[in-house]
Amino acid sequence: MTSSEPHLKTSVGDTAVGDASAGDASVGDKRRWFALAIVMTAAFMDLVDVTIVNIAIPSIQQNAGATESQIQWITAGYALAFAAGLITGGRLGDIHGRKKLFLIGIGGFTIASALCGFAANPEMLVASRILQGAMAALMVPQVLSIVHATFPAHERGKVFGLFGAVVGLGAVSGPLLGALLTEWNLFGLEWRPIFLINLPVGIAGLILGSRFITESKAARAPKLDLVGVALVTLGLLMLLYPLTRGRELDWPLWGYVSMAGSLVVLAVLVAYERRKGARDGSPLVELSLFKVKSFAAGIAVQTVFGVALGIFFLVWTLYMQMGLGWTPLKAGLTGVPFSIAVSVAAGLSVQKLVPRFGRGVLQAGALVLGLGVLLYMWESERYGLGIEPWQMAFPLVVMGAGMGLIVAPLTDAILSEVPREHAGSASGLINTVQQMGNALGLGLVSVVFFGVLDDKLGGLGSAGAGEAEGGAAVQTVVGSAFADAFQNALGWVAAVMGAIFLLMFALPRRPAQHVEGAADEVSAGPEPLEGRGEAREAVSVS
């Protein structure tokens, strides 16, 4: 949900010192503060857009007639497009100019938001969300790159403190803003204002950014690996599409063939990346990183963590609004204790706990989060359809505390034993796999949630049940089915947290702390900022 200042600093600790426009050149230039406000606003817009959509999903399904697989793709399509383009977006900025790519990204993001807001049908909405994710992949990596190129090292602590505040604000305000905009039904537009609100912000950012942001490029940027991007995207699509559509189509044979074929595509990707790395040294995935045990385990943790959270946040909002019949505002307010707990625990974990207890903090986070999930399952079953937000508050606070103990220090733990010259590639890959895990988790919702829902509802049908005129009896059946499906999904999330706890034993016992502006930054090689999204990463799952 949110992140801490040291966590944000990690993302720029190994950037190029040979940029065409260095931070020191901007000292005394007051325009850099305007530039900071612009890129932070863009980052806030992206963060809010990630969190704002989930709360409106039930309204989109009911009012736009979206199928269950389509509502999965409204969220998963964005995550997949963002993941596939993240590293390439960062490299494009290093090569062609970060200001230029930022403006292209924010302009495209604004257009895609308009297309989402005016979508004529669910198919157009899914396509527009995929475009929105692709444009975010161009915009987001430039934000921290521009900050690094614009501000000297001694000012960045203050800057990233502000960035941490923006991240926290985005985490809390996104669901609430989505709930208010959906419930107010402005101008009879129902859920559409959650996308249209980006238009004035994006247009202002485009105009002001072209005036106040200073252009910068990397002195020696790696080449693009478009074939690698294509293989990653193809492999994920071959896995995700059958997962989301298989249940509706009664699990056809081609779905199993496609999922098996995704493993073949992954093998081709590994072979290609190995060859490309030997040929020009700029593969999409630096395979040598996986020889570092802690990095390989950390990537597995990040991926599986993304899967668990991708499952939870979608089924959670469906359970509250479609199962319990709560309004979007009531559901949005219910999540506030969770957001606050994440923010507090994230700050404590980096500043106080990790320096003293090391890896144990991360493992405690996995156990605490798993415990919170089990408490939530118990309360959901105990109170049934009469459960109230105050009864959910305690397990949500426990879950939020567990997540906060993980999200902030995890990146440092993964990077601890990575050679400094590969820190940029490793950082970009961390964020990419987290988004991929999120997309995979959203795809698995078909199996762990909707599949159970179908079994419980039987012939009633989950889509028609909410609209049937069977009165209280029908609503009770539907609500109970949603509660059972929700509890089943939580069981899977708890099991995943147990697996994450075991994987964390491969992380270093005492993760290194990467501090922004450290003296050794001057001697760092020209490692580009590619795919830096740690600030976003911690909230992209909510």
- The overall average pLDDT, rounded, is 82
What is the alpha-carbon Rg in Å?
22 Å
Distance between the termini: 6 Å
Q: How much helical structure, as a percent, in the residues? A: over 70%
Give the topology string: H per helix, E per strand. HHHHHHHHHHHHHHHHHHH
Characteristics:
542 residues, mainly alpha, globular, 0% strand, 19 helices
Structural account:
Helix 4 packs antiparallel against helix 5. It is built from 19 helices and no strands. It is an all-alpha fold and 542 residues long. The chain has helices at residues 5-10, 31-64, 68-96, 98-117, 122-150, 153-184, 193-196, 198-212, 226-246, 253-280, 293-323, 328-334, 336-357, 359-383, 389-415, 423-457, 462-465, 471-503, 534-537. Mean pLDDT is 82; it is low at 1-18, 20-27, 461-469 and 514-542.
